[in-house]
Specification:
13 helices; mainly alpha; 69% helix; Farnesyl Diphosphate Synthase
């Protein structure tokens, strides 16, 4: 099913509403900066509430909408994801092993706070995310809470985002400067970026007790959207001449035009994964096209 005309115009307000919703939830859930640890709490709030498109929260909310999931439960899962993403952005902005600045991630956090506080704030946000999913006030079923915690740990940990960051650092600092082959670059980006985005698409299905075919479709959609999203980000960096030339990317391996074609193919494939859903998935279809517009 193609995205109907007019759906793209509905995407921006829908993403804006998702951003407002999850930011309100985060503002309520994050502790107020007071007491001896006020500086840490202030840094946590700065990182988590830093304005962004909130694509990940949007995906949690929209996939949950397919199954009629309660908005409070979705908001809790979305808030947890945004805390993990804020942690990843804080880590991504740290200098590389040889001391060079990466220029990526949430550099603003490191400018506003000293490096130790920024690192601790990221660590605190990561642990805070799992605490949010463990509370029973928004997600009552303990088995669903346990599954969400397990899946988020896999998406964020050594086999997901953090592992991908480690691979990126290792490749960037490899002796001889030889670029890894394209399959290794794709694996890196599946871990660093696509794993967390895939969790966002699976979270709504888990909360909605979706059927195995529906879960599989949304997982495949998330993988393709996540990879397309990262390629588009690397294309935008290349266009703006701000790319770290030591970082291995699909763009550096394939060239700009072939990488752009690959992102478009992934976006189209993501849309096809949604064929088993009705028009309720139209905003997800539009989101698959939105992520490749980051080159503009």
């Amino acid at each position: 099913m193609n995205t109907p005309l007019g759906t793209q115009s509905m995407l921006e307000p829908a993403m804006g509403e998702a951003a407002s919703f999850v930011e309100s939830a985060l503002d309520t859930l994050l502790p107020a900066p007071e007491g001896p640890e006020a500086r840490l709490l202030e840094a946590m709030r700065y990182a988590a509430l830093n304005p962004s498109h909130r694509l990940r929260a949007f995906l949690v909310l929209q996939t949950g909408r397919l199954f009629g999931v309660d908005r409070r439960a979705l908001g809790r899962a979305a808030a947890a994801v945004e805390c993990v993403h804020a942690y990843g952005a804080a880590r991504d902005a740290l200098p590389t092993l040889d001391g060079a600045e990466t220029g990526g991630g949430d550099a603003g956090l490191h400018r506003a706070f000293d490096e130790t506080t920024a690192i601790l704030a990221g660590d605190a946000l990561l642990t805070f995310a799992f605490g949010l999913l463990g509370l029973s006030d928004a997600i009552g079923d303990p088995f669903i809470r346990a599954e969400l915690v397990t899946r988020l740990a896999q998406a964020a940990g050594h086999s997901g985002m953090i592992g991908g960051q480690m691979l990126e650092t290792a490749f960037a600092n490899a002796e001889g400067g030889e670029a890894p082959p394209l399959p290794e670059i794709s694996r890196l980006q599946r871990m660093k970026t696509a794993a967390l985005i895939t969790f966002c698409c699976e979270a709504g299905a888990v909360l909605g007790r979706a059927s195995p075919p529906a879960r599989h479709a949304l997982s495949a959609y998330g993988q393709d959207v996540g990879l397309a999203f990262q390629i588009a980000a690397d294309l935008a960096a290349a266009d703006g001449k701000s790319a770290d030339t030591r970082k291995p990317t699909v763009v550096s391996a394939m060239g700009v035009e072939r990488a752009h074609a690959q992102a478009m193919a992934l976006s189209a494939q993501a849309v096809r994964h949604l064929d088993l859903f009705d028009e309720k998935a139209d905003l997800l279809r539009a989101a698959a096209q939105f992520v490749i517009s980051r080159r503009a």
